[in-house]
Amino acid sequence: MPESPYIESPYRYTISRVAILGAGAFGFALASLLSENHPKLPIVLYDPVKEFVDGIRDHHCHPVFHKGVVVPSSVTATTMLPDAVRDADLVIFAVPGQFVRGAAKSLVPLLQQNTAQQRIQQSAPPCAQCVIILNVAKALEPDTHKPLLEVISEELRAGSLLPGPVCPLAVLSGGMIADEVSKHWPIGADIACTNLDVARQLQLLFSSPTFKVNITRDVLGVQLAGALKNVVAIGAGLFDGLGYDDSSKAAFVSEAAREMKHFALQLGAHAETFELGGQAWLGDLLTTCFGKSRNRYLGELLGKGKSVEEALHILEQEKKRAEGYLTTKAFYELAKEYGLHMPILAVLYGVLFSKKPVQRAIVEFIAV
After folding, report:
1. Same domain for 45 and 148?
2. Residue 184 and residue 240: Cα distance in Å, rounded?
3. pLDDT tens digits along 194-241
4. By the 8 A CB rule, do 332 and 228 touch?
5. pLDDT of residue 1
6. Is 261 a catalytic residue?
7. What range does the domain containing 298 cover?
8. Which residue in 138, 146, 229, 249 is the catalytic one?
9. 40-52: per-residue pLDDT in tens?
10. Which pTM does this prediction carry?
11. Last residue of one domain, picked from the residues 217, 247, 277
12. What is the dihedral of CA 253, 315, 308, 141, to 10 degrees?
């Protein structure tokens, strides 16, 4: 992916209305965070799941996740995408990685309508007010192995909404377990964008006394960090399921982290993103491998003897999705494409897709 410098933009970036695509655990948590920071900011959650929408719209709380968390009336929900994104200045993608392209395809004609209507009403020059697109999903697209902002960019280009002044693209990532975000506990995150005006605007929007946000221009690195740590977390969960204590799991995580960091740098990430203090990498890695994360939970179920199919079914019943499952396959195939030696990744792929016994995988991890 070619590197772009920060862009000092002549265009106006104000955020007076936010649309969040995805009213699951993390989408709702972000709405709670933003409404706490900006009580009068209109926030609209979109989701095709009527149960989610009805609970948020009628009771100002989520019917499945975050019990006891109530959002203000400035947060609404809808099953109609056009209603959600109408007049939005910021559109947040909080949908699973495998659904990002479809969501982007649906979004493009609506953004085209918004832009055309805006020019008619305001007699403004093109892009006087632009729609910022922020992705928070941590995955690669399963079939193409592409980072998700690249997927969104392709769909924008297909609709002649070129990323840049029209729809600047950004990514938010870090150690943010949804339940903890909704409780407004002290948390850190990184926002990456090639447009400095947009990065600063988003930093102001999300920052609070308990939510620290750093900005970077390493868009690719922040995306890879978030996706790769999910892969490591599945492996960490295997140790939990087998009943090992923290020393064993920490040994695995440190070895896997070194391999994944090297992989990311080979793909074009910046080294600074993977250094100490990087929320998108180390902060998220620690959170996901040692906290109550979905990907670690998937590994734990496998370690306890569940088959992959059984473990995924349990997650589905709990309305959870482990992005690291398909992302492991995508990274494994990408490593083969690049001719890179990734022994830990290969073992994890074997567990998830080739029925490799978990106990044998643990031995192979140590032997790497």
Report:
1. yes
2. 27
3. 988 899 999 999 999 999 999 999 999 999 999 999 999 999 999 999
4. no
5. 36
6. no
7. 222-367
8. 229
9. 999 999 999 999 9
10. 0.89
11. 217
12. -70
